Amino acid sequence: MKFEVQAHEAQKRVDLFLCDRLPSFSRKKIKRMLDQGEVTINGQKVVIASWKVRQRDFVTLMVDEPTQREVLRAQRAPGSSSVPGLRPGAQEEAASSRETPPSPGKGGQKKSGDYLKVLYEDDAILVVHKEAGVPCERTPQTVRATLVETINAYLARTQRHLTHHYVGLIHRLDTETSGVMVYTKRKEANSLGQQFRRHQITRRYLAVVEGAMDKNEGKIEGFLEKVSGRGGRKVKISDARRGQKAVTHYRVLERYPQATLVDISLNTGRTHQIRVHFDSIQHPIIGDKIYGPDRRSPWIHRQALHASILGFVHPQTRQKMEFKDDLPEDMQRLIDALREGKN
Is 228 a member of any domain? Predict the structure, then answer.
């Protein structure tokens, strides 16, 4: 079953594109088909639900004949839409951000602190997207607004009735890593930090690493020792006496001639763990200027590492929560180039 992407459908997530084209399919069912490798774009298997389709892409579902007949019956049913990309009665999804992105200022640049992409917010916690290049906290070398400063500016704009805003830094991402992060808005919620310290958090990342990995899935484990080396190195491979145990699981999502896209989950969350572990097996993350060979890519100007999923138990309601952050534009541009055989 094959669909061609029309101009008005370009830049849609592939799962939403398929939901529109297949109104009888639930989004959960489409996600399961993606996970099982039953969806291709231009002949390449796609497993990332947030992958953006482009005009004239061909999206193919590998489904059996009974499923095809089910789809055809649904499309012929009264009230069904014959217009590609339109689901009868479908509601627009809520925007992931609570703020409207600002118009570019002089030089086409956004001012630091003008815009924060909010994935979730309540009285206790704030879940946000961190852009690559934005530091989590200020150091003597910091030259731009930190994420904490941007959050403070956001809270000052949206909660003007409060004279003081509390922002609790619970965990960190490297400056050049993008992805989902959680902050607390009151001290009583800082118990969330215990879940990070006890490794009770769900953390998954997407990374593009150099070379063709031998296995489709695997585990990298060992001990990491903190160091104060030159060039930004903070840890190195060590032994049980001097280092801390670190465990990284990975699963190959796509293979390219000279690179591999991997989905990564962590049992532990040591400093620079993913970067050091993949470098230790001769598959450094593309664009890693510290642990990799620092071969510059024309498609991405930072390490190709994105925190895609974060799950935890809410510190006050005790509800299990999981948040997903779409693949950023620069990583998608890199993957598009690799799919086309460009290095």
Answer: yes
